[in-house]
Amino acid sequence: EYNYTRYHPINEIYDWMDSLANDHSDILTQYTLGLTSESRPMQYLKISQSSGNQKKIVWIDCGIHAREWIAPAFCQWFVKEIVQNYQHDYKTRKILQNLDLYVLPVLNVDGYIYSWTTERLWRKNRSQYGNGTCYGVDLNRNYNASWCTLRSSRNCSSNFFCGSSPVSEPETKAVVDFVESRKSDIVCFLSIHSYSQLVLSAYGYSSELPRNYNETFKVAQMAAMAMKNIHGTNYRAGQFSRILYEASGTSQDWAHGLGIDFSYTLELRDNGSYKFILPEDQIQPTCEETMAGVMTIVEYVHDKY
Ligand code: 0X9
Ligand code: ZN
Ligand code: ZN
Questions:
Q1: Bridge partners of 44?
Q2: Per the confidence metrics, is the pTM higher than 0.90?
């Protein structure tokens, strides 16, 4: 029995993916999205109920930032819940009739490993810059969305190093290639982070209002309310640049720019007590409330498309 209320090192997560995909080959398939800068595979799961009709896609990635361990824990929880529920839960079955769910549990594999072995608060990937004098690009500053203009740095020692050019990193490129190749089918793009308890809509790089702002903000508010309803945890909804800070080069803004209106960043628990070192006894309640929020968004896009 896999323990979903503990944090797991990457080898355990990858073993979990293998065995779950094996045990539930009726709806789960595992794929490699690409290789990291240290040549490790980026594994993701496609959750798809077999049927003839062409389905729309919901994308969920976790762990773009190495130290935000609750994010990969949520992606695993999410897959477990869907696999458990789809047999008997009417809502889940209905959603899977029209949507395929693509889940990338650990986007930044090299950084995640480094945060386990060497530096718990590591954020970036592990690519070498400056002839090996510094390491790591902030992958959530490396996308092609007003690249390297806000809350970004050109100094490779910075935690917000944006890379040598947009999409300079293999991890970014792997996501971009996949999402671009399927962009007409992708109706929702979710990127899971911690901490601050926020549901953020576009844009991050500008306080200008994007197309469909009223609707995407409304859905963010619905998700935040659903999250509060589970354990009373407060989540704030709003435009990224207004309630957090302006940041450029984020995956969410890039995905929105591609035409995926329902593109959100979720910042999970907590509110600053434990910050990135969220205790394991909060994994379950955090995942339960996040499940409610994510399913609110997924149901909305299901009904709309
Ligand atoms: O700064 C980030 O990349 C995210 N916060 S974190 O503490 N997890 O690093 C927030 C990204 C918000 N997205 C936009 N502003 N679009
Ligand atoms: Zn099954
Ligand atoms: Zn983050």
A1: 31
A2: yes
